[in-house]
Amino acid sequence: MASFGRQFPPQKEEFLLQREDFPPQRQQPGIEHLMNPIPQAISHEYRPANKLHGKVALVTGGDSGIGRAVCYCFALEGATVSFTYVKGQEDKDAIDTLHLIEQAKTVDARAPIAIPADLGYEETCRRVVDEVVNTYGRIDILVNNAAQQYKARTMEEIDEERLERVFRTNFFSYFFVTRHALKHMRQGSSIICTTSITAYKGSPKLIDYAATKGAIVAFVRSMAVRLARTGIRVNGVAPGPIWTPLIPASFSEEECANFGKDTPMGRPGQPHEVAPAYVFLACPADSSYITGQVLHPNGGEIVNA
Q1: Any alpha helices (H) in 77-159, and if so which ranges?
Q2: Does the predicted TM-score (pTM) go above 0.85?
Q3: Per the residue annotation, which of 72, 85, 200, 209 is the catalytic one?
Q4: What is the CATH number of domain 53-295?
Q5: Cα-flanking dihedrals φ and ψ of residue 25, to 5°?
Q6: Peptide bond preceding 271: is omega within 30 degrees of 0, i.e. cis?
Q7: What band does 29 get if pLDDT is binned at 50, 70 and 90?
């Protein structure tokens, strides 16, 4: 069984005042267990309160980064958790996340499942939803979180094939998984979509990625209005710079070493600092009157949109 000892954060005071210097590193694709340091999915300070007892959750891209931290917190809160990952590239990360969920889950939650899937195509999205429903009977919480990004110095580097691939993963998957999951969701259910600070600030080096994240914000707002009277809420989370496998997969060694230093807090966030936003939005007791909104865990950047 995997050991997660390296993921525990330092004491709160130290973590707020100090920033660990990340060694230069580069990966393609990004693999969590090869990162140095490993992103922190666990926080000793998190106190579960049975907020998601009896709920069934599907988290796309749940094998690592923010997705892993969300799966972990959902399990602590009593949910039965399923997640998707990319077969071949993310097998070990998916196994590690399964073990993490199994250790965290409550007694009455059912065993978690990890589903290999390329979510860029509707048929695969339908198959994933069907597998979750066939296993657990329904979906109460859907977290659309799968993503990929690549840097580009010029627009000429973003050819048609790459543009389509990024939109398929980052936006088409959200649309198609949501469309099929809605058939199995009921009043009180929650849909949460991961967007990004780049949707609001833009990014000269991540034009196609930022465009998908802007589309996700519009999707959240549109679906929230459409579903408001059904009792299904739709919200988003727009993280700032978070230490996840997307970073060494996208940026140069020097950029990784300096990642997040330009935030007001002077450091990047860790996945465990983002995951509670998803718990809040998933829990009707906490957020029953919130829909069409986006939370901004971003280290202090002011977002006016």
Answers
A1: 91-104, 122-136
A2: yes
A3: 209
A4: 3.40.50.720
A5: -160, 155
A6: no
A7: low
